[in-house]
Amino acid sequence: MDLRQGIGPRRPGKTADEFQQDLLSNLFYRRGTTVESASARDAYETLSLTVRDRLAERRSRTAAAHFATNPRWVYYLSAEYLLGAQLEQNLLYSDTGGLAAEAVKTLGFSLEELEDLDIEPGLGNGGLGRLAACLVDSMATRDIPAVGYGIRYDFGIFHQIITEQGQTERPDDWAFHGNPWEFPAPDDRQTVGFYGRTEPIPGSPTRKRWMPGEIVLGEPSHMLVPGYGTETVNIVRLWRARGSEASFDLSRFSAGQYAEAVQEAVRAENISKVLYPDDSTELGRELRLKQQYFLVSCSLRDIIRRFRLRNEGWAEFADKTVIQLNDTHPTIAIAELMRLLVDEYEVEWDEAWSITRRTFAYTCHTLLPEALETWPVHMFERLLPRHLEIIYLINMFFLREVEARFPGDHDRVRRMSIIAEGPERRVRMAHLAVVGTEAVNGVAELHSKLLRETVLNDFAELWPAKFQNVTNGVSPRRFVKIANPRLADLITEGLGSAAWLGDLEQLAGLEALAGDASFLERWRAIKRANKVDLAAGDPDALTDVMIKRFHEYKRQQLKLLHVIAMYHRIRADPSADWVPRTVLFAGKAAPAYHAAKEIIRLIATIAARIAADPVVSPHLRVVFPENYNVTLAERIIPAADLSEQISLAGKEASGTGNMKLALNGAITIGTLDGANIEIRARVGADNFFLFGMDAYQAAGAHQQGYSPWAYYEADGELRAALDTLRAGTFGEAGQRVADSLLGRDEYLTLADFRSYVETQDEVDQVWRDPLRWAHMSVLNTAHSGFFSSDRTVADYAARIWRVAPVPVPKAD
Ligand code: NTF
């Protein structure tokens, strides 16, 4: 029976009755329960399956269209995906929200109740992982044939608890109740080797045989990624590690050695146990490299399997395949593809290298030297002996090329080598990523420029055409329509159509309404209602939010110095006409990053102190909702008035929270860093609170003898804030934060303090004029259309991937 001959599976129906019937069938036949005994979770799972079926039907048409077209594919390799909760998005993308709300009533539940059971898979850390989720959404929305590959961690990013002691971490067993959105695909299981040794193959100078010492299975499952306003449904395929059958030692088990009997299987399964295992030990670091190779090895074999379904030979591989490396984590893929081609498929080295280079592209997401990954050569040699040999060969040919271009420039050769020499030789993954790819891009204009001028300068001189910029973007569906339905409705009404959700530049039409007093009043009322929902303080107070990972370069400590300055001012003159503010922090710190955790602890102390102070608390509140994740972001962003984007210029590659907040009408206070610059250029300098030094001023400061003490001496208000911390008024954490600021102040917090506080005073002045504020707010939304991830994906498609959309026909 050929399904494409018209005899296919029964299509899920479109009417309310059909939806209702499908829901009941799923409750009986797939959940195995009845209406009378259905729990909320039964109802949630059943609804999810009913919605999923509708997407699965679109998926089958997508696969058929892709198969018939044999297109060029995008494969996105990422260690992280922060997909967010699935139910609401899938209701929106399948246009079944209304049907679902009615149908679940018959089971005795409301849709909201069931949405609360929808857990987000926390398979990422921060911006990098959420960007991956926005890009796969937009690839499907743009009809681009794509698969996102990642790891199905058993435990995602930790669950954060905040107490007055600061942050504690609990494991996040996200799939404890199961994950109805996931399809296991055990037949596509892959085998991955580690350790062992290599052997020459007689008669072949470049081929080798690798005999791994450990074998692990990679078992895939996938989640559906529907496009918005289109028929395409792509997938994200996630690998989970399993021991092979041989990893269970029956004889030991029979002898009562139960732990020993399963130890090999446990070791294998540890590979996909947690996202970013602690890397403060050698074992932890090795586990991370193991994860990276595990992801890459499974994914490349799957990519080759898919290629071979439609093609023969290798001539077309690079024309049909582009593999995007999301930062350096999957960079070992370059050596792995070489190994597969040369050792397993017997392709000549030069041809294999040509294929490899044309297949990959690399996105760099940082400028911080400590975030550019390197691995000790000795670890590589033990874990991936064949890959190290291949990297040496790649490096040898590459350095010859450098020598030929720059004869006698030995220093350049040393700087550019993939292997860093020194007491401990290390493999520089970013260098491998630049050498082995066709395109390299940064994630905002400034970032791409600084990459070319600083960390990757030698490479940009060698291959200027390779370097590009693709400014990040965010999904307007998730971050406006789903997160902020009131605002989405007003925008749709104002623009006369909902087409902006698929073409965000249309928001520019709001400019015409920015002078309309009644529109501004409604705009304000929505912000207020969102604040009431968030329930984080007085809805009439200025809601000042700093939501992002905790890192010293992002400078949460600068925001705190401002809070302490306000605290002092209010205490000194309680009856003055203060602008009421709620300062909201949210975000996680890496468990081993002690300085960042001190800052969280200090925030918790200050928040409690202010709350207990009857003089200050009517005017100022500090709140710290715990466990920041996509779901919490969707509640905070619509309620924000002021968006804190205050990193030291030159350190934040892009930022994406800045875009989400501007899109929702928050006004940015920020430095000339990352995408802030592009936001300001679009929303207009008058609608953006700029402060601080620029990246070039910041870069020279330490060499020019920067002294935090000079700022301390010169600024009475700063001195008072730091003295309060030093005196221990806000506990030991405060003392340590002050010591760090007065010690080295790596991120020039004190240097930017005065400019920051003065700009915050300006913020207060504007806030006192509510219509002016609302006007600025509308203009922020109106001019944020550029920051749609649909535009980002269109940029990648045109300039880096060179892929064309493949439309999927509608069901007849
Ligand atoms: C992050 N990089 C950057 O710090 C953010 O500025 C940027 O918005 C996101 O990537 C997405 O591009 C990283 O997380 C990493 F890992 F590269 F440091």
What does the model show?
Belongs to the glycogen phosphorylase family. InterPro entries: Glycg_phsphrylas, Glyco_trans_35, Pyridoxal_P_attach_site. This is Alpha-1,4 glucan phosphorylase. With 812 residues, this protein is α/β, with parallel strands linked by helices. It folds into 3 domains: 99 residues, no CATH class; 367 residues, Rossmann fold, CATH 3.40.50.2000; 314 residues, Glycogen Phosphorylase B (Rossmann fold), CATH 3.40.50.2000. Helices cover 48% and strands 15% of the residues. The chain has 33 helices and 25 strands. Strands 1, 4, 7, 8, 11, 12, 13, 14, 18 and 19 form a 10-stranded mixed beta sheet that branches. It has a 6-stranded parallel beta sheet with strand order 22-21-20-23-24-25, with helices on both faces. β21, α23 and β22 form a beta-alpha-beta unit. The two termini are 20 Å apart. The model has no long low-confidence stretch (mean pLDDT 96). The structure holds N-(trifluoroacetyl)-beta-D-glucopyranosylamine. The site of N-(trifluoroacetyl)-beta-D-glucopyranosylamine has 16 residues, from α6.
